[in-house]
Design brief:
Distance between the termini: 19 Å
Number of helices: 2
Oligomer: single chain
Mean pLDDT: 90
Helix content: 10-25%
Strand order of the largest sheet: 1-4-3-2
Low-confidence stretches: none
Length: about 120
């Protein structure tokens, strides 16, 4: 897998959020999209979509990023919230924290990834 594209109305803002959350570097930044390479080697592309509307959680998300956290899930969640994430209205499993990025895409963080 080379990358994941995330639709949004503000690619720069969404890319900045994921850089703050995951680290990495900007690969490109143009009028329609911003691409970042995160430390795992994956490329995330935030792409502008006319008349964008966010997915609904749970239910309509086409893709949900699942992210490995370090040993302190609460601290990782606090960091994500501090840089612009919002808590998802439904939490289905206490081993995972589902949050919404600034464009409304759900993503989950867990400390359980290493044991999967």
């Amino acid at each position: 897998m080379a990358g994941v594209s995330l639709d949004c109305d503000d690619p720069e803002s969404l890319a900045r959020f994921y850089l703050g959350l995951l680290g990495g570097r900007v690969l490109w930044n143009d009028a329609h999209s911003v691409g970042i390479r995160i430390p795992s080697g994956l490329t995330l592309a935030a792409q502008r979509v006319e008349n964008y509307f966010p997915p609904q959680w749970p239910g309509s998300a086409a893709v949900q990023l699942e992210l490995a956290a370090d040993a302190d899930l609460d601290l990782c969640e606090q960091h994500a919230l501090a840089i612009g994430a919002k808590p998802a209205p439904v939490q289905q499993d206490p081993r995972w924290r589902v949050l919404l990025d600034p464009a409304g895409h759900p993503f989950a963080i867990t400390t359980r990834a290493a044991s999967m």
